TrEMBL record:
Keywords associated with the record: Carbohydrate metabolism, Glycosidase, Hydrolase
GO biological process, one term: carbohydrate metabolic process
Stated family: Belongs to the glycosyl hydrolase 3 family.
Keyword presence, Lipid metabolism: no
PANTHER family: BETA-GLUCOSIDASE
InterPro entries xref list: Cellulose_deg_GH3, Fn3-like, GH, Glyco_hydro_3_AS, Glyco_hydro_3_C, Glyco_hydro_3_C_sf, Glyco_hydro_3_N, Glyco_hydro_3_N_sf
Residues covered by the Fibronectin type III-like domain: 660-731
Domain of life: Bacteria
Protein's name in the database: Beta-glucosidase
Keyword Hydrolase set for record: yes
């Protein structure tokens, strides 16, 4: 249902009045004439319309904040067309987990426009497989193109600074190296189709609480080493067509108004060639945004256009600055399918994309526990499925990162399709509960923050005991969901009393019969596990796996796919153990005006490892149904010069075929500057190794891998001294080490002094000098 008509699209026609002097043929046309020639002939009004999108109105399904008034209903935004110069409009659509558009169109009852829900970013990162992520990107990009979209507002790649960030599911990791490489793989895959991406949200959008105004106060070093570093890697390795600036301020300035961020760092230092757009209605001052290098304002308002026109007229905005913004937008348009008049068919191959989504999902699931080989399941077992999530999976988070899908596969269906026999009495209880709940809570396609989840039914003791009697094994699915617009509450991190009680009752009943209980975690961010993980036999972290959820989970539980995912984010013992627990989401807590990142560089494993704080499951951790032995670590030299390679051989020493994720950490000398005990500087995944088969992986260490950001010198500096290469199966399970020496201190890179905090930050330090 349409609600408020938020704002009308500006009619281009009126802009053209008074430009009859040039006939259409004589005017330079985009693609045929240099853009500078077109810009010379544009009116000020036309220029202002190019740098602001066509606006939006609030609607039912589509984009989260609204729906663009354009040719792909439900897409989030558009850019303006100007016919007299042959400039077409282009279409921008959310979001990271799939093409977020309306499934139905007015006056078109014969066709649907459902999209594939891919596994969420956190799951994809847990695969540690950039080739796989690129492959997903290739399929995703095809769907983007075939639905007539020019730019997908993805991937999301903020650092998972704190487990309660409501949008963590959209992001990849707590580590910038993993985030950067995953984002680059996704961008390269998507853009290989000739469509664009918008890596987001640049930068430090690490919370949803008061996201539109919060001032993130971050040291230059933490910014450079963590929050900017991931974007730097993605920009340098994939040249995304566009970058989306974030809503928040950093050190007092809106990111969309920050010349330091968008021009000095992004363009001058990193060599970004594309266009920057705002997040939807992001920032305050359109003129400052133009000056900063934020070329496109989305979704675009008449007020913004007027402000730009006025500023040029009154001399507060130089027209040459605006011309540069216009030029970047035009250069972007030149690269789009819309410009090429690509005839999209609206019939992407959803079947083959679903198959790809399923296999990617299985490859990113993480086996956290598997006592006495509780998994894989024996063939054709009778399974007692507990938890609403076993019948109604959470396929992804909410907000713009959600996808409107034609179907989802539940675990119950996934298992029965491959010969398992789910308990029908339990199924009746859960399905009845779901149906009853749907009457009071009908499904919505647009939800922000934590959605309503069907409450777990109360089970009678006899329901549990008869399942434990009759079935061979129990499987209990625990769900969580969150998304754009709100952070998770601390309570959401812990199991509720009801969840704990039910889980324990089920575990006790199955154990009393000598049977096992498996837990499947269908969640988008870390939860507490220490208080209950000892009561269960195996735990599979399935994350939020996209529309083929149940099939992918069944693939792993059955052993059809060997689990090969590892955590790209730490699971702490308790929330208070998080280094940012005290400062997140800032002050005042109900609507934080500022958020001080006083943990500095000690985010995730950088903190837990350096300060020896116990975790439930550390960064990089994950089990398999087989085992891997590491041998033969070799460095190309004992002394570093220019670059160094490390090779290590991995052999499958177990009984089934599997893939292993190998991580390279580096410890650097820390006499003068705080350094984490180790930092990830490389990772690789073997191919599927049969038992007894081996593979040698090669890692390259470049000078920047050795360096830390020295704030006084605004430079990346590698200290002279002894470095240690640590090859790990996780950040805590280091299998082999080898030292090398850097003979002389190395200034690897000199950067701008930029985005300097206005206040002093009492940062966490290890070194006491
Ligand atoms: C979100 C973006 C999204 C945009 C368009 C914003 O609210 O933060 O991630 O791309 O809306 O829907």
């Amino acid at each position: 249902m349409k609600t408020v008509q938020f704002r009308q699209v500006i009619a281009v026609a009126f802009l053209l009045v008074g430009h009859t002097a040039f006939s259409q043929e004589k005017l330079p046309q985009l693609g045929h004439a240099p853009v500078s020639e077109i810009i010379k002939l544009m009116t000020l009004e036309e220029k202002a319309s190019v740098v602001a999108g066509t606006g939006m109105r609030f609607q039912g399904h589509g984009a989260v904040i609204g729906e663009a008034d354009g040719r792909v209903p439900g897409a989030a935004g558009n850019t303006m067309s100007i016919n007299r110069f042959g400039i077409p409009g282009t279409v921008l659509s959310d979001g990271p987990a799939g093409v977020r558009i309306d499934p139905f169109r007015k006056g078109d009852s014969t066709k649907s426009y459902y999209a594939t829900a891919w596994p969420v970013g956190t799951l994809l990162a847990s695969s540690w497989d950039t080739a796989l992520v690129k492959k997903v990107g290739v399929g995703f990009g095809n769907e983007i193109k075939e639905y007539g979209v020019d730019v997908i507002l993805a991937p999301g790649m903020n650092i998972q600074r704190n487990p309660l960030n409501g949008r963590n599911f959209e992001y990849f990791s707590e580590d910038p190296y993993v985030s950067g490489y995953m984002a680059a793989a996704m961008v390269n895959g998507i853009q290989s189709n000739g469509v664009g991406t918008s890596i987001k949200h640049f930068a430090a959008n690490n919370q949803e609480s008061n996201r539109n105004a919060v001032n993130a106060i971050i040291s230059e070093r933490a910014l450079r080493e963590l929050y900017l570093r991931s974007f730097e890697i993605a920009v340098k390795r994939s040249q995304p067509m566009t970058v989306m600036s974030s809503y928040n301020k950093i050190n007092g300035t809106y990111t969309s108004e920050s010349y330091d961020l968008l021009t000095k760092i992004l363009r001058e230092e990193w060599g970004f060639k594309g266009m920057v757009m705002t997040d939807w209605f992001g920032g305050k001052d359109p003129v400052a945004q133009m000056k900063a290098g934020n070329d496109l304002l989305e979704p675009g308002t008449p007020r913004q256009q007027q402000a730009i026109i006025d500023a040029v007229k009154n001399g507060t905005l130089e027209v040459k600055v605006l011309d540069q913004n216009v030029e970047r937008v035009l250069l972007y348009i030149l690269k789009t399918p819309s410009f090429r008049k690509y005839q999209y068919a609206n019939t992407p191959n959803l079947k083959s994309h679903a198959t790809l989504s399923r296999s990617a999902a299985a490859d990113g699931m993480v086996l956290l526990k598997n006592d006495n080989s509780a998994l894989p399941l024996n063939k054709s077992q009778k399974v007692a499925l507990f938890g609403i999530g076993s019948y109604k999976p959470v396929i992804g988070g909410t907000g713009s990162g959600a996808v409107v899908v034609a179907y989802t596969v539940a675990l119950e269906k996934g298992l029965s399709q491959i010969g398992y026999v789910p308990d029908t009495a339990l199924k009746t209880i859960y399905v009845t509960q779901i149906k009853a709940d749907l009457k009071t809570h009908p499904e919505k396609n647009m939800v922000l923050g934590s959605p309503h989840l069907v409450p777990e039914p109360e089970l009678r003791a006899t329901d549990i005991s008869s399942a434990a009697d009759q079935d061979d094994i129990g499987i209990f699915t625990i769900r969580r969901n969150a998304g754009e617009g709100a952070d998770r509450k601390v309570e959401d991190f812990y199991l509720s009393e009801a969840e704990k009680t039910q889980l324990k009752a089920v575990a006790d009943a199955f154990h009393a019969k000598g049977k096992k209980l498996i837990v499947v975690l269908n969640i988008g961010g870390a939860i507490e596990m220490e208080s209950w993980n000892k009561n269960v036999d195996a735990i599979l972290l399935a994350w939020q796996p996209g529309l083929e959820a149940g099939n992918a989970i069944a693939d792993v539980l059955s052993g059809g796919v060997d689990p090969s995912g590892k955590l790209a984010t730490t699971f702490p013992v308790k929330y208070e153990d998080e280094p940012s627990a005290k400062s997140f989401p800032g002050t005042p807590a109900n609507r934080p005006a500022e958020s001080i990142y006083d943990e500095g560089i000690y985010v995730g494993y950088r903190y837990f490892n350096t300060f020896s704080v116990k975790t439930s499951y550390p960064f990089g951790y994950g089990l398999s149904y087989t085992r891997f032995a590491y041998s033969n670590l070799k460095l190309s030299a004992a002394t570093f010069s220019k670059k160094l390679t490390a090779t290590v051989t991995v052999i499958n020493s177990g009984k089934v075929a599997g893939k292993e994720v190998v991580q390279l950490y580096l410890s650097a000398p820390n006499k003068t500057l705080d350094k984490p005990s180790e930092e990830l500087k490389g990772f690789g995944k073997t191919r599927l190794l049969q038992p007894g088969a081996s593979q040698t992986l090669t890692f390259t260490i470049d000078p920047k891998n050795l360096a830390s950001f020295n704030t006084e010198k605004s430079s990346w500096i590698a200290d002279a001294g002894k470095y240690t290469v640590k090859i790990g199966a996780s950040s805590e399970d280091i299998r082999m080490t080898k030292p090398f020496v850097l003979a002389k201190m190395l200034i690897v890179e000199k950067d701008h002094k930029a985005i300097v905090p206005q206040v002093s930050i009492n940062e966490l330090k290890k070194l006491t000098k």
